[in-house]
Amino acid sequence: MRLVLAGCEYADTTTLVNAIVKWGESAMGGTFGLHDHFKIPHLSHEKLTLDEQAGILALSPNVLKMFQLYHVDYHLSESFYSDPHHIIIGLHFDEAGYAPRYFGYGMKDVYGDRGRFYLAVEHRILKMAPDTVLVQVKANPDVIARRMKTDPYENQVVREEDIEPVLAGFEELYERSVIPRKMALDTSTATVEETLAEFLTEIKPRLSETDRLRMLTHRQLQR
Length: 223
Fold this sequence. Notes:
Elements: E1 2-6, H1 13-28, E2 33-35, H2 50-57, H3 61-74, H4 78-81, E3 86-89, H5 92-103, H6 114-128, E4 133-138, H7 141-150, H8 163-176, E5 182-186, H9 192-203, H10 209-222
Parallel strand pairs: 1-3, 1-4, 2-3, 4-5
């Protein structure tokens, strides 16, 4: 199963994807590759120290732009898409949604425009894996603000005063997406279990024939 999950900070994409991975490995067997490290300064599978995060944040916009270019490109390589499962959180959405506002690069109509980069990434995803499903995870502005206060992240990206424009930006990116298989899930009032149940309902008609066969085969083997 190939998924791209996207959403503003505090929309609970990571919480949801962990539940999806647990379900997927139970339903299909095998191991699900998961990549949730595209949001500056959290650019590694391994948790970076605060000093390491400060080092990333001290980089110039040009260096950050180059790093993220190679970072995203690497995760679109054949080595990942040759695996049966590839799940990514953020990727080009985080670049287009955050870089121009917070990190000083990727502005419209300049070299490295993240709006153009965003579409180029999507066309490449569809070439590598046309069965990819885009999952937009969202929540109301007041819910995002409350989560910010009750469970703050280290070096969070979004500022409270920016919540509404950032959410609008992610909504626009979702609407512009050329990935045909997509769904939107709202976590404002739903529990993780309820959101996962909604995902499972929505994903069924979007699963590839290969994934359906994996589920059937795994079910038979379990018996």
